[in-house]
Design brief:
Layout lengths: L1 H18 L12 H12 L7 H23 L2 H12 L1 H33 L4 H6 L1 H4 L5 H14 L2 H12 L2 H16 L4 H47 L12 H25 L10
């Protein structure tokens, strides 16, 4: 008993002594997955959707697929396999939407840069030149620049408004344009118009070249999707007859499905990596 009292007393004294020393705040390491998901949602135009909502949609999709396939096939392993596939559907939809919008905005940025150059050459200030894009710029980009205009009018701080515009656009081309404007604002210089004209010409050439390459290599990506989807479509059709898929409701059948799923994912990722052009990374975040 005396030992326990002594230990408690020592712990109390140590706690009092420890409380006198300042403690450093723990460093908050940003979650790379959450950050990437947030960027994908932003690029897909789903600004109001949080990554947690995307995880919730994946869970609901997986649960729904499991219940439906189990009710049809009465086979747990097949229901689990399609539940795993269904869990990735929301993320696949978001990535497809983001990729489509990136492809669309890639063709719109040269026009936006031309409007920006016209404003700068007309003697407008940088905030005014950006604000005019909310009315005269490409239709897809107007909401972001309208938000910038409201933000700048409310705060009067140009550089923080640029940072928020960059986060809202989440586009590598926008990063280059915004950083050029930032350098001009902070350092000064008379070459902004020439720099933006050169950038617009480069963007047009890049968009044309990339469109030609994507048209040539799209068959590889589509072939990979068809090759991966075909066996699972056949399995889904077989699951309508429980007697035909009863063999999968065993340890051996489950292992066959697991290895088949792993092989499908690996083959698809390999084919996509070979056949699809990589998106331009956001270097100037």
């Amino acid at each position: 008993m005396g030992t326990i009292v002594g230990l408690l007393l020592g712990a109390g004294v140590f706690s009092l002594w420890w409380s006198w020393w300042p403690r450093e705040k723990p460093l908050r390491v940003p979650n790379t997955l959450i950050r990437k998901l947030s960027e994908e949602l932003t690029q897909a135009g789903l600004h109001a959707v949080a990554p947690s909502a995307l995880f919730g949609a994946s869970l609901v999709s997986a649960l729904s697929a499991f219940l439906v396939l189990y009710a049809v096939s009465q086979t747990t392993s097949i229901a689990l396999a399609f539940a795993v596939i269904a869990a990735g559907v929301p993320m696949a939809v978001v990535r497809h939407r983001a990729r489509t919008r990136r492809r669309t905005t890639r063709d719109l940025w040269p026009e936006a840069v031309d409007h920006l150059v016209s404003g700068v050459r007309a003697g407008l200030s940088l905030p005014a030149a950006l604000s005019q894009l909310a009315e005269r710029g490409p239709e897809e980009l107007r909401p972001a620049f309208a938000s910038f205009t409201e933000d700048y009018r409310a705060t009067g701080r140009f550089l923080p408004s640029l940072d928020r515009l960059k986060d809202q656009l989440a586009d590598p081309v926008a990063d280059r344009i915004i950083e050029s404007l930032r350098v001009t604002r902070e350092v000064g210089g008379s070459d902004l118009g020439r720099t933006l004209r050169t950038l617009a010409e480069f963007l047009r050439q890049e968009a044309q070249t990339r469109a030609e390459l994507e048209a040539r290599q799209s068959w590889t990506v589509n072939g990979a999707r068809l090759a991966v989807a075909a066996p699972w479509i056949v399995l889904a059709l077989l699951s309508t007859r429980p007697e035909a898929v009863h063999a999968y409701d065993s340890v051996t059948g489950t292992m066959v499905l697991a290895f088949g799923g792993a092989a499908s994912v690996l083959a698809y990722l390999l084919m996509v990596r070979i056949g699809r052009l990589r998106d331009e990374p956001r270097v100037l975040r």
